[in-house]
Amino acid sequence: MEWFKKAKSGIESKEKKNIPEGLWTKCTSCGEIVYSKKMEQLLWVCPNCNFHFRIPSRKYIELILDDGRLDVYDVNLVSKDPLKFKDSKKYPDRIKTAQQKSGALEGVTAGLAAIDGIRVSFAIMDFSFIGGSMGSVVGEKIGRAIERAIENRVPLLIVSSSGGARMQEGILSLMQMAKTSALLAVLAEKRIPYISILTNPTTAGVMASYASLGDVIIAEPKALLGFAGPRVIQQTIGQDLPEGFQSSEFFLEKGFLDKIVERKDLRNTIIKLLRMMWRKSVET
Amino acid sequence: MVDRPYLEFERPLVELEKKISDMKDFSVGESIELDSEIASLEKKLARLRKDIYSRLTRWQNVQLSRHPKRPYMLDYVKMITTDFVELHGDRCFADDQAMIGGFAKIDNQPVLVIGQQKGRNTKQKLARNFGMAHPEGYRKALRLFKLAEKFEIPIIVLIDTPGAYPGIGAEERGQAEAIAHNIREMARLRVPIVVVIIGEGASGGALGIGVGDVVMILEYAWYSVISPEGCAAILWRDAAKAPEAAEALRVTSDDLIKLKVVDKVISEPEGGAHRDPTATARLVKKEILAALKELQTKPIEQLLQDRLAKYRSIGEFEER
Prior knowledge:
heterodimer, A: 284 residues, alpha/beta, 2-enoyl-CoA Hydratase, Chain A, domain 1, 2 domains, two-stranded antiparallel sheet, 11 strands, 36% helix, B: 320 residues, eight-stranded mixed beta sheet, 16% strand
């Protein structure tokens, strides 16, 4: 019965998967397929399940800051390779690849900006740069953003997304948790507000330092938040994790978040908060 | 005393030790003169030991820090302090037995000692959760730090942990928040803080009680952003590559002094702290006292400024 056999295999499924790049977007959370232009209008939030897609730093800058404008500082800070670290790849090669992909020298963009006329020190992490990991440069740039807030006496906003400390810089990465947290202690003594905004995902070393130290902590919906990664926990306890574990909603329920705010409402929420928390801004 | 070998690289030493001890036993009962034989074997043993321990790989170093006979936090408390009064609980949720703290006297001076405790036998290990604290452990530590500050009592931290516990309860109760707050608060505590890493210093679990004016490490202890196993599982996708990860991460006391993350290395007896806990404790005590003495001459504002400057300056980067 040779002529009953399929001449080719896999035709049916292949065609369905090959959606033209960029025209349509499939939600990684619920599988809904949405016209990309529509997604752009929706700020990359799934209209079906409200999943917040990862968007580049530039988009947050446009979304949150007045005129989408950030006067950037410290753009010339570049990582070294203090450990001469090598796994499957050499660390300097990893950095190079990330730089080419992102067009930036490191994983944080920081500077001074205004929100509804209120001057702020702003910093945002880029998850696509080696998983938003924090090495010496990320720690230093966040540190300087905190110092800018202190020197200029303006509120601090940090948008985090990170898998944690950067292993390739070893113990020096761990020490960035101490550097940033110590400077935040000084900021707190000066009674300058700090709003920490968590996006998907924010975990480990960043979560266990500045991301958790906001006077107000806001997260986008359905972001993965936590100390240990879900895989590590699963391996440790040897059982499946409960539904919704380590999500923004879980964090809110357990009392570790002030608020879950949708992307489209971020700017207004921040303005409202700063207008009440930072009355001294009237003087400047 | 002859030990059962625990680590592979200890085996030739333990075998030789056994031979010497057998010969000694034998020569006691008999009239055969074995003294010169024994002496030569003992010389050989010393040479072999020196040879092995001077060429430890970083992974062997990590293994040594996990030696089951290595002195733990409470052993040091017993050996270097008197009048220890353990204080329990975080006043919120529970008493975490992986984290121990209390007031004690060192050389007649009151101090607060705090640190992770591991267990010796299975029952203790479970009770101490293998030295992996939950959020309530870090919150207990912070509560005691604040007590020390209130009564102007210096703080001694003894770190020995394979990491903060990664579990469901730990996440539910805010492991990240607890560690972050400790780090921030420790940066500003208005009393001297002396930190000694006595065994394992893994990641945020160590740093969560590890911010200090002077940070010291025992020769065969380690301190890292992540355990070698954890790093291997992520970057090599195979936890068995831990030896490679330990090399790459540069986790030994020697590495840490070069990276300027610790201020001083406290040397251990040949073969490690477990071979002579008393001698090790004596040195640890001496170094703690020396550090305290120096810190206590500083005005508090100066102390805080120096502490901030110390952590502010850690990191290596280039400014183009």
